[in-house]
Design a protein that fits this description.
By secondary structure, this protein is an alpha/beta fold. It folds into 2 domains: 109 residues, no CATH class; 226 residues, Spore Coat Polysaccharide Biosynthesis Protein SpsA, Chain A (Alpha-Beta Complex), CATH 3.90.550.10. Helices cover 51% and strands 13% of the residues. It has 13 helices and 12 strands. It has a 7-stranded mixed beta sheet, with helices on both faces.
């Protein structure tokens, strides 16, 4: 037995407490190094430490739509009426069987900057979205391509301009934030939290020179970059991955920028039940195994140390004496306060909600969902069922 300050500490107790501290150190490092990136970037911008271009090169906005006539009717005019000097909008009708075709014909009469193409109904390919996007990219007149979805609403008329201020000569990718509308209910809180955390992660890593993904709801890259990577040729056997895999493959610390301005956000309608959200998350995680080894390692290490942190905290409370129990409580509370500050400040910056009592619930629940999907998930990367979004 080791005696310290008149208290006795068993070897098991010291080991468990040591593991707790090591996991805590990594968690704090992860939060300040990566998840705090959006707040650091905001400070840099306020201090004029970030260089933006004054040029406004022509932009082609590309939207792939499958049975999205209602969303297109509501949101497409907001894209078409952006305040930007030179842009076109290309909508790909991905084999829709609703009123999409008629709606697009009517909108083409009203908006001269709208162009359309289509994927035939019943196209025999795993990812018709990738085919549709390829058709849209080939039809684009401009080198800079800006992607969003049919159910996305730009935050402001300056959405294109906000993204375009990053189109410097050396830039090939610009990562934006695609948020979900705030609704009532627990499932919406879960979805908005998960989306925010993923954005804080991919934006934060990109801001320290470790880009690994972007989201197709708000992503820009060069047409030349797309063809230099042979488009989606290496991922045609996968149903998903039209956005994150091309970023993971071709982005670098020098060719990737992040746009965090509140008016650069796009907003989407979230899933309304747990099943639909689970299927969507399952589909997205199915392609994460195709990320680079370095990306997979960084992404896996945090939830592992998070799980170790919680397990060691509980073990310390069971095995520890008064000193280690109080110290463990202080460590737990410190991490929780760091989470509250960084996550809620980032959420507020993007116009999102606060997470207080739900934060520890989601902090434990989401890694378990991911582990279950990656271990026992019902759909596969090659699956054909479900929508492609």
């Amino acid at each position: 037995m080791v005696e310290l300050y008149s208290f006795e500490f068993s070897l098991a107790e010291l080991i468990v407490f040591g593991v707790l501290l090591l996991a805590f150190i990594h968690q704090v490092f992860y939060y300040f190094r990566f998840l705090n990136g959006i707040l650091r970037q905001r400070t840099r911008i306020k201090n004029d430490s970030v260089d933006f271009t004054d040029e406004q090169p022509p932009v082609s906005v590309i939207i792939c739509a499958k049975d999205e006539s209602d969303n297109l009717r509501q949101f497409l005019p907001l894209v078409l009426s952006q305040e930007y000097p030179d842009f076109e909008v290309i909508v790909i009708n991905d084999g829709s069987t609703d009123a999409t075709d008629e709606l697009l014909k009517d909108l083409c009469k009203e908006y001269s900057n709208l162009r359309t193409t289509f994927v035939p109904v019943g196209a025999n390919i795993i990812s018709t979205k990738k085919l549709g996007l390829t058709l849209g990219i080939k039809a684009a007149k401009n080198d800079w391509l800006l992607f969003t979805d049919a159910d996305c609403m730009p935050e402001d008329k300056t959405w294109i301009a906000s993204m375009a201020r990053n189109f410097t000569p050396e830039t090939e990718f610009v990562l934006g934030y695609g948020a979900y509308f705030k609704k009532k209910g627990f499932i919406n809180k879960l979805i908005t939290y998960d989306t925010l955390l993923v954005a804080m992660q991919y934006m934060g890593m990109a801001l320290v020179g470790k880009p690994y993904m972007g989201v197709g709801r708000n992503l820009a890259y060069r047409k030349a970059t797309f063809f230099a990577q042979r488009g989606f040729a290496s991922t045609l056997h996968l149903r998903s991955g039209d956005d994150d895999l091309i970023v993971n493959k071709a982005s670098t610390d020098t060719n990737t920028r992040v746009e965090i301005a509140p008016d650069s956000i796009t907003w989407s309608e979230p899933n309304r039940n747990y099943k639909d959200w689970f299927i969507q998350k399952e589909r997205h995680l199915s392609v994460s195994t195709f990320y680079s080894k370095a990306s997979r390692f960084r992404l896996a290490l945090e939830p592992v140390t998070r799980g170790i942190f919680y397990a060691a905290f509980i073990a310390t409370l069971i095995l520890g004496n008064l000193i280690t129990m109080i110290t463990a409580g202080v460590v737990f509370l410190t991490r929780y306060i760091i989470q509250l500050c960084i996550i809620n400040s980032s959420s507020k910056h993007f116009g999102g909600r606060k997470y207080i009592f739900t934060l520890p619930i989601f902090d434990l629940f989401l890694p378990m969902v991911s582990i279950y999907i990656l271990t026992f998930g019902r759909s596969t990367a090659k699956g054909k069922s479900g929508r492609w979004k």
